[in-house]
Amino acid sequence: MSNLKALVLVVVSMVGFASVAVAAETKIAVIDIQQAMFASDYAQNSVKTSLESADFVALKAKAEGSAADLQSMGKEAETKRLTWSAEQVAAQQKKMSYAKADYDLAVQKIQAEQKELQQQIMQELSPQFQEALAQVVKEEGITLLLRSESVIVASPENNLTAKVVDRLNQNTQQQ
Questions:
Q1: Which residues contact 99 (CB under 8 A, 6 or more apart)?
Q2: Which residue would you say has higher pLDDT here, 126 or 7?
Q3: Helix, strand, coil in percent for the chain, rounding step 5
């Protein structure tokens, strides 16, 4: 019976040491993929170019103009409402609803342009990002890489995002 206890103790000890050895060999890191892609110089330049494009500037001006019109119509209605007839109130409400519709449409177009730009950047950068990520993972000896969104706590030294951004910038400048 004591031999059996000794054997069980030896097996448990060996399993414990083996799990410690495996844990020592595992290097875990996290990355925020979107942050890495959109923090790159390429993405920043693409966003800047898009924001300065004539189409985007016109959309933004349209939205701001519609918002200003809506605000001035609201102030006018507030000050003159008591002196207006029912027809004048209805006409003002109609004008305001048209201005609101113009504003909403301009905002939707801006959001669609931004979403399209994000998708374009992700599609264009994906091959370079994968290459940069693979290089950093190999250099750092990472055996397990997790998305930062799926991790509750990670120390800053386990976050590869900045290193991948730097490598991505290097790789895209060389091309």
A1: 66, 69, 70, 73
A2: 126
A3: 85, 5, 10
